[in-house]
Amino acid sequence: TLANYLGLNEEEEDIWIDDSDEALQEMLDRQKQ
């Protein structure tokens, strides 16, 4: 899947599927800080 290609874990994949890639991007940006 695209989520696997992006290296997402199951939690991140659920967020991505449920809330769109914008929500996932926001979460990833928070993790980097």
List the helices and strands and how they pair.
Layout: H1 2-6, H2 10-32
Which class do the helix and strand fractions yield?
A: mainly alpha
Major sheet size, sense and barrel closure: none
Computed Rg: 9 Å
Number of domains: 1
Strand content range: under 5%
Average predicted confidence as pLDDT: 77
Helix content bin: over 70%
Task: Summarize the helix and strand pattern as letters.
Answer: HH
Individual helix count: 2
Distance between the termini: 27 Å
The beta-strand count equals: 0
pLDDT < 50 runs, ≥5 residues? none
* Shape verdict: globular
Care to describe what's here?
It contains 2 helices and no strands. With 33 residues, it is an all-alpha fold. It has one domain. The longest helix has 23 residues, at 10-32.
List the main descriptive attributes of the protein structure presented here.
33 residues, mainly alpha, globular
Task: Briefly say what this structure is.
By secondary structure, this protein is mostly helical. The protein is built from two helices and no strands.
